[in-house]
Amino acid sequence: MTSVAAPPEGYAVAGPTDAPRQVRQRHIRRGWVGVGVLAIVLAALGSATLFRAIGPSQEYLAVTQDVPVGTQLTSDHLTIVRLNNAPGLTPVSVGDAEQVIGSYAAVPLASGTLLSLSQVTEERVPGPGEQLLAINMPANRLPGDVIRAGHPVLLVATSNQINPDPEEEPRTFTARVHELRPGEGRGDDMVVSLVVPERDGAQVAALAAAGRLTVVLVSAGGS
């Protein structure tokens, strides 16, 4: 009988092995790959376009305090801010500061806002042939809360007669609102600063003191 030699020490006898498994390749849809690549390209193009539209940051002028209409601007009213040149904004750049310093506020300027050239004017307030006066007006003689600085208005003098003639034409005066602020007394009275022709200043002041004025808001081209 032939004897089978024992395997050397440390040698493991291999048992039966499984048949090799075939690895299935994952099927990749080329259409989705194309969509993904296209999305990445579009995102990159969009970012580049946005960067070009916004551009690098630049220095502009901003208002440091509330400035009433007609105030002559100085460097104390302004500060320098740095921001991106966002589309739709036209603030005054630092390089154009000489164009606005020494000019006058054409509209009320709010603290913390950017300054634009459309908000300033070279015309002094009051101008030649004009007077600036302040009158106390009850709220029921003002056109609601729509009146603002810069608005043209018509001042209508009411009659002092008990039974006025309805066919009599009232006296009227053209004016421009310079500033509005709440009255210091009780109630809802307003102090209205008006720019009026020099010839009408004294009459308007007297009628206002007698409580005989009503303010009518007119269009920019009205009279």
Kindly describe this structure.
The protein has 223 residues and is of the alpha+beta class. Among the domains are: 57-121, Antifreeze-like/N-acetylneuraminic acid synthase C-terminal domain (Type Iii Antifreeze Protein Isoform Hplc 12, Alpha-Beta Complex); 130-217, no CATH class. It is built from three helices and nine strands; from the N terminus they run αββαββββββαβ. The protein has helices spanning 30-54, 97-100, 201-209; strands at residues 57-63, 78-84, 104-105, 120-121, 130-137, 152-157, 172-182, 190-197, 213-217. Strands 5-8-7-6-9 form a five-stranded antiparallel β-sheet, covered by helices on one side. β7 (172-182) and β8 (190-197) form a beta hairpin. The longest helix has 25 residues, at 30-54. The protein is elongated. It starts with 29 loop residues before the first helix and ends in a 6-residue tail after the last strand. The relative contact order is 0.13. The model has no long low-confidence stretch (mean pLDDT 80). It holds the Pfam family SAF. It comes from Natronosporangium hydrolyticum. The chain crosses the membrane at residues 31-51. Keywords: Membrane, Transmembrane, Transmembrane helix. Residues 58-121 form the SAF domain.
